[in-house]
Amino acid sequence: MEEGLEQLKKHLFTMHPLSAEEWCDFSSIWQVHQYKRKTTLTAAGETERYLYFVLEGIQRAFFIDARHEATLVFTYPYCFSGIADSFLTQLPSRYYLETLTSSTLLRTTHAQLQQLMDKHRNIEKLIARFTSFALMGVLERHVELLTFSAEEKFRILFKRSPHVLQLIPHKYLASYLGMDATTFSKLMATVRIE
């Protein structure tokens, strides 16, 4: 638990430091939870009650209906996880969150985080800052999906996160990139990653 909290602190403090009292309060709301591979953490229609910080394993958020399945995001150590829009609004999720591998996560509740934001203005600022960066990432990814070729998307992913090729099934990577498995396989065979 202590090592996990140190990773959380390092991750937070690079963007927005907290005072000793704020950190003490913030660190006290997290608990370690372990999940088996392919565990559904949040299902569509449920309201996301938890914010996670990943210590071990890989998770994916995805959308599914009768005709489509689309991977929206992967999370892995050391980053936050959860269905962010449902967590922040406390409205039912349209998406699923599952573990792709066995996972160890720090977890806190919406109610606990809300209490801390009410108590400490600086923690509220921290959450606003992280939300802003998450939105920036979503908009960047939206531009990539709408304007980049399949090969450009492929290259960007593996330049940004080269380790995912060995860790995540290719069908999910293809879905994340907005392409079919055949196109992904062709790119795997022909594109050199430098």
Word description of this protein:
- This protein has 194 residues and is α+β, with helices and mostly antiparallel strands.
- It folds into 2 domains: 2-146, Jelly Rolls (Sandwich); 148-194.
- Helix content is 49%, strand content 21%.
- It is built from 9 helices and 8 strands.
- The chain has helices at 2-13, 20-27, 84-89, 110-119, 121-147, 150-160, 164-167, 170-177, 181-190; strands at 31-35, 40-42, 50-56, 59-64, 69-75, 80-81, 96-99, 103-109.
- It has a 4-stranded antiparallel sheet with strand order 1-8-3-6.
- Helix 4 (110-119) crosses helix 5 (121-147) and helix 8 packs across helix 9 (181-190).
- The longest helix is centred in the last third of the chain and has 27 residues, at 121-147.
- It is globular and about 55 Å long.
- The mean pLDDT is 93.
- Pfam families: cNMP_binding (PF00027).
- This is Cyclic nucleotide-binding protein.
- Residues 33-120 form the Cyclic nucleotide-binding domain.
From the coordinates shown, what is the CATH architecture of the largest domain?
Sandwich
Q: What name does CATH use for the topology of the largest domain?
A: Jelly Rolls
Name the CATH superfamily classification of the largest domain.
Jelly Rolls
Largest sheet: 4 strands, antiparallel
Beta strands, count: 8
**Sequence of strands across the biggest β-sheet:** 1-8-3-6
Counting helices, strands and paired strands, the structural category is alpha+beta
**Order of H and E elements:** HHEEEEEEHEEHHHHHH
Q: What's the overall average pLDDT, rounded?
A: 93
Write down the overall geometry.
globular
Proportion of residues in extended strands: 15-25%
Q: Please give the share of residues in helix.
A: 40-55%
